[in-house]
């Protein structure tokens, strides 16, 4: 087996593992249901900052932060992206522990299509006819859910928009995934630590004290930092070795697992009216993904010829 083939296969396995881990995260947050969502988020920020910074220090040396911030516009744009990802984490964790796993999965199903719309609006990208059709079908699905529920699916929209805007900023600032997460974590570390210490001092926290949540929960909160960093590091490893078209299709592993967990494990309602809305969105994704795969194969054939 050639080195390139081995690298590609390793990238596929790592990408799959990353998306599976993201997809199974509702089970992990469910184990922390006794902890307020804000406390989970600030612990996640603090411990991921410690772990990601340690990784970058080992991998890139002491100058990693200065080198990343030296990129044009990186300082303020990564601050903004840090706020967006913190909001996304907070909304997602709250939604999971409030019994909205299915709607959360919807947010990540429609996220690729939101990315397309943001690309048109901010990057002056052009869509072909098939891509416009997929966006229109997904819009019909969201409109159907809005009509059936009596209000828009705000959780799904909030997750999709916050993660889509996060991705847009990260595309514009052009730093690698792990270094960018490291800078975002550094920005968020002190505010999160203040909130954490304030909560411990005023009785809303329960980390370490004997009357707190217990050592098992404390350990889960610390490990949450690693579970934040590991999939993203794995994703960064994979995209350098696997075609983006393949990674783009594999990203649907995560919301699919989230959806299945919501229905089969958490027992959330999924009646016929909600199913119709989801079917519209799944059709839109199938059209969008098929078009992307066809174009990638066509480019590969042209390049080979």
TrEMBL record:
Chain segments annotated as transmembrane: 12-31, 74-94, 106-123, 130-147, 153-169, 181-199, 219-239, 246-267, 273-294
NCBIfam families from the UniProt entry: rarD
Similarity field: Belongs to the EamA transporter family.
InterPro entries reported for this sequence: EamA_dom (IPR000620), EmrE-like (IPR037185), RarD (IPR004626)
Keyword line: Cell membrane, Membrane, Transmembrane, Transmembrane helix, Transport
Signal sequence, renumbered to the chain: none
A Pfam family this chain is assigned to: EamA
Domain EamA: 11-146
Name of the featured protein: Chloramphenicol-sensitive protein RarD
Membrane topology: Multi-pass membrane protein
Localisation per UniProt entry: Cell membrane
């Amino acid at each position: 087996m050639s080195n390139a083939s081995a690298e590609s296969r390793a990238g596929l396995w790592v990408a799959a593992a990353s998306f599976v881990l993201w997809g199974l995260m509702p089970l992990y947050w469910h184990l922390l249901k006794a902890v307020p969502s804000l406390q989970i988020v600030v612990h996640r920020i603090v411990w991921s900052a410690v772990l990601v910074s340690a990784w970058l220090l080992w991998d890139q040396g002491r100058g990693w932060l200065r080198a990343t911030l030296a990129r044009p516009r990186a300082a303020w744009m990564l601050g903004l992206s840090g706020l967006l990802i913190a909001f996304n984490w907070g909304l997602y964790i709250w939604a999971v522990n409030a019994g909205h796993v299915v709607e959360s999965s919807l947010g990540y199903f429609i996220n690729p299509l939101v990315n397309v719309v943001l690309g048109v609006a901010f990057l002056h990208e052009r869509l072909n006819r098939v891509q416009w059709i997929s966006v229109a079908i997904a819009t019909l699905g969201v409109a159907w859910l809005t009509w059936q529920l009596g209000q828009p699916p705000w959780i799904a929209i909030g997750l999709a928009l916050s993660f889509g805007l996060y991705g847009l900023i990260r595309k514009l600032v052009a730093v690698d995934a792990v270094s960018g997460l490291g800078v975002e974590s550094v920005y968020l570390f002190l505010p999160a630590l203040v909130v954490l210490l304030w909560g411990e001092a005023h009785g809303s926290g329960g980390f370490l004290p004997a009357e707190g949540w217990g050592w098992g929960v404390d350990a889960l909160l610390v490990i949450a930092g690693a579970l934040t960093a590991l999939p993203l590091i794995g994703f960064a490893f994979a995209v350098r070795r696997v075609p983006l078209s393949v990674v783009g299709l594999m990203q649907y592993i995560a919301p699919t697992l989230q959806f299945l967990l919501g229905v089969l494990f958490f027992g959330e309602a999924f009646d016929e009216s909600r199913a119709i809305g989801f079917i519209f969105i799944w059709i839109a994704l199938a059209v969008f993904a098929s078009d992307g795969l066809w174009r990638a194969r066509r480019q590969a054939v042209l390049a080979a010829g």
